Amino acid sequence: MSTTQRICIFISLFLATAPPLIATADDGGNTPLTAYDVLQAYDFPVGILPVGVTHYEINRANGKFSAYFNSSCSFSIEGSYQLRYKSKISGYISKDKLTSLSGVSVKVLFLWLNIDEVKRNGDKLEFSVGILSAEFGINNFYESPQCGCGFNCKSIEENRQRGGYSSIPFISSI
Fold this sequence. Notes:
Layout: H1 3-17, E1 21-24, H2 35-41, E2 55-58, E3 64-68, E4 73-77, E5 81-94, E6 97-108, E7 111-114, E8 117-121, E9 124-129, E10 132-137, H3 153-161
Antiparallel strand pairs: 1-2, 2-3, 3-5, 4-5, 5-6, 6-7, 6-8, 8-9, 9-10
Keywords: Signal
Pfam family, one: DUF538
InterPro entries: At5g01610-like, DUF538
């Protein structure tokens, strides 16, 4: 066995037995990856997480993760869907799949339903709430939404500056 092969085996064994990665998004630049970087490493777009993750934890051995925000928030997307993120979301992540999610919900008619799974199928993301699911193009999630205004923050601010509405209608921080 060559030296290169031994080194590769050693690195593989080290990575397999390494402790869980615990990182803080605002630790002065010492963090190797942000929560958004981790999403991309598992083939997800950053836009499934809103702006503002303060820190996260991930166990590389089993994929269990938690992401934290300063507070919970809600916002609308595509005009008819309202999403709500608690201050802590968690679940399991693997390539193209988030399972056992908690802390993320969508309003359907008058009910808030928990999004319990997200799968990537090529250029589509499938969001599941129990036995129901909906697919959206991945291009809708290339940038992260912001709490309170989702993806429309710029147009809302421009409208305010022109003398439009003074608050964001139907959307509130929780």
